[in-house]
Specification:
By secondary structure, the protein is an alpha+beta fold. The chain folds into two domains: 201 residues, Metalloenzyme, LuxS/M16 peptidase-like (Cytochrome Bc1 Complex, Chain A, domain 1, 2-Layer Sandwich), CATH 3.30.830; 198 residues, Metalloenzyme, LuxS/M16 peptidase-like (Cytochrome Bc1 Complex, Chain A, domain 1, 2-Layer Sandwich), CATH 3.30.830.10. 45% of the residues lie in helices and 19% in strands. The strands form five sheets. A six-stranded mixed sheet has the order 5-6-11-7-9-8, sandwiched between helices. Strands 13-17-14-16-15 form a five-stranded mixed sheet, sandwiched between helices. A two-stranded antiparallel sheet has the order 1-2. Helix 2 crosses helix 8 and helix 11 runs parallel beside helix 16.
């Protein structure tokens, strides 16, 4: 017997739809808050594992760093983990750290209950570090210098940095380049690391994520008590809350000379969303991204008729700004045809929207992707950490599905008219012999 296209089972006279069971599973408390200040969350992982993971999450990253601080967080997370190396080798501790624009994480893996003693060692090293080891400091400064040098030399890094610089006006912290970061790090001292630690590793900026499969109450209590015993810094009275703004540039054509193949790289970007936008608006942007990509359900399938293989969509959604972008590789003779096709499809999307059949297929795929991510141990932990850091609450797949189910074609049309503003489009062209590509011709292809 079927119901709503899902197979159902009978228990006595009660018919149970697996889709409802699945929804119930995600509305259960898979995330529990155990302790306020410091905030500790227990995450129940979906797949059986004997490992327990602890994430220390800072709700700050590069973007919260002023010009003089820029890069200090990166150097500090290197220093803290490197200071643990001897103990890590001796006790078989698996730990690491990473920093991004708006979040910093330190994480450790505990393989069994006997290794809980390693947790105390890890926490002590992160929150009560010794800032006197010049050898480790110099070694990690050199390691980061090499790491950044490799990134600066990377073709894709250079292109991304150039595109971000054009997308935002003025000194936006989302568009600072690697060279500036490297210069800042080279001037840092251990005193700078200690000062940064006191300003950012504070009880209002840190929370803890303990992830595992059906962790016992006894183990949970041991971990939470160990965390509660940490004496976290208070927010310094003279430390100002990060306050900066990013303004978007208007229509712009930027040509970047790079010796690549006979093809050229083309990137088209629009001002995007911030985390303050509603989740429905974020989903609408992703739906539009799918439609304007060379996907099976998209509306750009004709790019193959032009001899172009693919159109990729990407987005960045941050606290202060964001962008959506489309990229492809093509020959110079194909540029005019592609731009006319892309511009025409934008017009079509704003006026007609999308066929119901295609919209249903995209929504179904997005719901499937959401469920698959939440059913993966690593992705669930990352999902929870991000949501807590950015929104202060966890948005489950059930929430996603409810929003996606409400999306109509009229929503797509309205959002396309708002987000795809050609007057604020950036056109980035990368290649070797591109000087003779006419700006006037590009404008003509996009605005006729």
């Amino acid at each position: 017997m079927t119901k709503n296209n899902h197979q159902t089972f009978k228990r006595g006279q009660l018919e149970i739809d697996p889709a409802l069971i699945l929804r119930h599973k995600y509305t259960m408390n898979c995330v529990k808050k155990m302790s306020p200040r410091p905030d500790v969350y227990i995450v129940d992982l979906p797949k059986k594992t004997g490992d327990i993971f602890l994430d220390i999450v800072l709700k700050s990253g590069y973007a919260e760093e002023g010009e003089k601080e820029f890069g200090t967080g990166h150097l500090l997370e290197h220093y803290l983990i490197s200071s643990l190396w001897d103990d890590m080798r001796r006790n078989n501790i698996e730990a690491n750290a990473e920093i991004s624009l708006e979040m910093t994480k330190h994480y450790v893996k505990i393989r069994n209950i006997k290794e809980l003693k390693n947790l105390k060692l890890f926490l002590k090293n992160i929150f009560k570090p010794d800032f006197s080891n010049e050898n480790i400091f110099k070694k990690e400064k050199k390691a980061i210098t090499n790491e950044l040098a490799v990134k600066i030399a990377s073709f894709h890094e250079r292109i991304d940095a150039a595109a971000e610089k054009e997308r935002f006006k003025g000194k936006c912290r989302y568009a600072r380049d690697r060279k500036t970061q490297l210069k800042s790090i080279l001037n840092k001292s251990l005193k700078d690391l200690e000062k940064y630690h006191g300003e950012f590793y504070t009880e209002n900026n840190v929370f803890f994520l303990v992830s595992g499969y059906k962790i016992s109450k006894k183990v949970t209590r041991q971990i939470v008590e160990g965390i509660k015993n940490i004496d976290l810094h208070k927010k310094p009275a003279d430390k100002k809350t990060c306050d900066f703004s990013c303004a978007y540039s208007n229509f712009k054509i930027k040509k970047i000379k790079e010796k690549i193949s006979k093809q050229i790289l083309l990137a088209l970007s629009f001002p995007g969303l911030t985390v303050k936008n509603s989740y429905k608006e974020r989903f609408l942007s992703r739906i539009i991204g799918r439609l304007l990509s060379a996907t099976q359900e998209g509306i750009m399938a004709e790019v193959r008729d032009l001899g172009i293989y693919d159109v990729r969509y990407e987005e960045a959604t941050l606290k202060k700004a964001g962008y959506i972008g489309f990229g492809t590789a093509l020959e110079k003779k194909q540029l005019d045809g592609f731009l006319k096709l892309f511009s025409g499809k934008i017009k079509e999307l704003k006026i007609k929207g999308v066929e119901e059949r295609k919209l249903k297929k995209i929504v179904a795929d997005m719901k499937k992707s959401s469920r698959r991510s939440f059913e993966n141990n690593n992705e669930r932990a990352e999902w929870v950490a991000y949501d807590l850091a950015v929104y202060g609450r966890v948005i489950t797949p059930t929430d996603d599905w409810r929003i996606l189910d409400s999306v109509k074609n009229e929503d797509v049309k309205k959002w396309a008219r708002k987000i795809l503003d050609r007057k604020k489009m950036n056109v980035i062209i990368v290649g070797d012999k591109i000087k003779n590509i006419s700006n006037q011709k590009i404008r003509g292809a996009l605005f006729t």
